[in-house]
Amino acid sequence: MALYIYSATNKINGKRYIGKTKFDPPTHRWNQHLAAAKKGPKDNKRFQPYFHRAIRKHGRDNFSFDIIHTFDDNEVDAWMQAEKDYIKKYRSNERDHGYNLTDGGDGVPGWKASPAVRRRMSERRKGKYVGNKNPFWGKRHSDRVRKLLSGKAAKRTGRRNPFHGRRHSKESRARMAENHHDKQCYLSVEQVEEARQLYATSEYTYAQLAERFDVTPYVAEKAICGLGAYAKVGRQLPRRENGWIKATRPTPRLLTDDEVAGFRRRHRNGEDLTTFAKERGVSINLISRAIRGCAPYDRVQVEPPIAASKISASLPEENVDEARQLYSTGKYTYENLAKKFQVSKSVVQNAIRGKGRYGKIGKPLHARFGKWAKNQRRAANAR
Q1: Helices 206-213 and 217-225 meet at what angle, rounded to 10?
Q2: Which of 251, 261, 328, 369 is the Cys-Cys partner for 365 at CB 3.0 to 4.6 Å?
Q3: For the chain, the helix, strand and coil percentages under 3-state DSSP, each to the nearest 5
Q4: φ/ψ bin of 247: left (φ > 0), alpha (ψ from -120 to 50), beta (otherwise)
């Protein structure tokens, strides 16, 4: 394995960025810079160095990428020092001459945590994000987010995958084998059955089972789901049509039947889902699923039936302009208008802002108008 010192030079102003990389080919490091620059500050707020902003400003075609020095893998100290020397030579840590923010030689290449350190880090993290301690506990991605994730994943398949048609080198395969030399590759039939029984108790995750049976989490998942070599071993946990593992454990019920029934009645009377979520300390998505009757709240009955409510599901066209005029006076809130027209708060908001079916009716109010109206009400109350 070789160690490289590279230079990325701006063809317009001659400024340089000096860096070091272990990647083979080293152009992979340049592709990382381009990907980080493409994200921009909106997607990558925490880390936007000067160099990446320059790439985004001048364009990737106005930069050249060159290897200026190569070292053997046993020359780490010389490699680190060379980065400092080249930065000093080209003065690339000065704003007028380059994009480096330090004098170089940063990082700890080759460092690997000892087993004792890794064990302490593991103990500190155990149970930190398990069960209801996980911020995503009881939640599920919306259909919009799932489609977005699916679309991004589709860009990494087939010929669009950067590793398509390539193979790991012998050195890479040897390193991967060395990293897993103390792990089992397969589980016995008895171990598979035991792992499935433990997973069905809801007390073990894939990672915990992997540690218990001294395998990788991927092997534990394959054994439990009956994939690959484990397809014919006993009775594997069934899978849903969409590929998710069918839960043999009960779906957690964070809301009681009485709470669900109460939320449904209050929602029909114009109260917002956000109010329920804050009141109960759960996500808006969970409240929405409970009100819509999704599992496990599909058998909750409400007396009297919700259908008997006088709340309308939409606002008639003749009332849309009237609602906008009343809201523009600054004397009415969404809640007031919802009670006046016997609709929900969200219906009033959509009608006033021209969202959905109300987009072609009259002239909607801009979203920022709500802040002005709120200030008007505050001023009136102050008088």
Answers
A1: 110
A2: 369
A3: 50, 10, 40
A4: beta
